[in-house]
């Protein structure tokens, strides 16, 4: 597996995890399944920060994988 493919895989995984964190944060924001999320100690702010961080990582990984390689 070359470096570009590895970065694209990392981008895809972090992008999907970012969406998952955003969806869970939305559920918590609208009051759905609040008991479950409170029992494991998740807060809306933590989920928002995780979603933003994961999206930024995926953007950086894709940008790096598309950049021309210098030898």
What's the short version?
This protein has 71 residues and is an all-alpha fold. The protein is built from three helices and no strands.
Report on this model:
- By secondary structure, the protein is mainly alpha-helical.
- It is 79% helix and 0% strand.
- It has 3 helices and no strands.
- Helix 1 (3-29) packs antiparallel against helix 3.
- The longest helix has 27 residues, at 3-29.
- The mean pLDDT is 78.
Helical residue percent? over 70%
Rg value: 16 Å
Query: pLDDT below 50 for ≥5 consecutive residues: which ranges?
Result: none
The profile of the biggest β sheet is: none
SSE layout and pairing:
Elements: H1 3-29, H2 34-39, H3 44-66
Helix pairs in contact: 1-3
Provide keyphrases for this structure.
mainly alpha; 3 helices; elongated; 71 residues; 0% strand; single chain
């Amino acid at each position: 597996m070359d470096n570009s493919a590895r970065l694209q895989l990392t981008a895809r995984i972090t992008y999907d995890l970012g969406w998952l964190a955003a969806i869970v944060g939305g559920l918590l924001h609208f009051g759905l399944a609040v008991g479950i999320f409170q029992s494991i100690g998740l807060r809306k702010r933590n989920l928002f920060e995780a979603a933003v961080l994961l999206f930024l990582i995926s953007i950086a990984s894709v940008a790096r994988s598309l950049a021309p390689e210098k030898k």
